[in-house]
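User: Sequence for FemAB family PEP-CTERM system-associated protein below. Tokens please.
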Amino acid sequence: MTVQLPTLVAIMPANLNDAGERARIDDYVRAHPDATPFHLTGWNVAVARACGQTAHCLIAQTANGEIHGVLPLTEIRSPLFGKALVSTGFAVDGGILTRRDAVADALAASAWALAEKLGCPSLELRGGPAPGEGWIVDETTYLGFSRDLAADDEAQLLAIPRKQRAEVRKSLDSDLHVAIGNWPNDLAMHYTVFSESVRNLGTPVFPAKLFREVAKELGDHADIVTVSHRGTPHASVFSVYLNGTVYPFWGGGTREARALKANDRLYYELMRHARANKACTRYDFGRSKAGTGVAAFKKNWGFEGVPLRYAKRVAPGETPREMNPMSPKYRLQVAVWKKLPLWLANTMGPVIAKGLG
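Assistant: Structure tokens for FemAB family PEP-CTERM system-associated protein:
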């Protein structure tokens, strides 16, 4: 499948088994001001390998190999949730990455052609420019929360609104231990906390292999901050880094975390670590559904929500996938899942979650 453009730029599939090809794509991503970690080939390859899905990537390039656009895509196949082509799978961002409108249009058209070829009745773009006719655009469901980091620890504290700042100060005086790394023990502590946290929210946990594979692929550009009390982890977040921005992505806390103020300590410590050890100047708190408690929590930290743009296209007669756990469609399932024993949720969850995408 190759689409020709009048500007002598062609759209073609990338070979993600070729290390040189992946390096060229990643160089383009890292040089682009709108890039996220979810555009990196390592992300796409890791989540596909961990969850039994298929990674694709479309690139726009000239005859001499100069890249002018990238669109990573994950082919999701699930007996429960159906088939879809997603940019990018298991992420909150991705979408078309280019500086040229004509290239964006061509990438969108080529992605839809690929979806049809693969038998996927829907195509989802999470972020990036919104395609035109034939696409369903949503700019009201999700908000993104991002702001600059302060110059030092005290300035970072002062940048947090007064009420939340008081909670952070209390957490600094508490008997809490902070560990940072991406070693097997860090991954194990994180999974212990994260799996309990998502069970409490009523959603299935991702396979542990997903976190291991992302950590392996991204290397020093991914790590985990965990806050423990008397040897027991209570709050943990898996973060990824790109171009001076930290993205706290998979985070959670136990039922005891709130009373221990472990979550307050967790995110402040990540801010300190990102600035001091990762040379970050910006903190991307990720997406939240508008009007939820999680969105309010981020606002308490001084972050203002900005609408995120998602776009979907579906085949005639089809309806878009509904993957939002807050949808009334899943109300009963969520209520039941919250009551499952943790061992059972952790056994069943990965089987289900690997098809969510």
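The radius of gyration is 20 Å.
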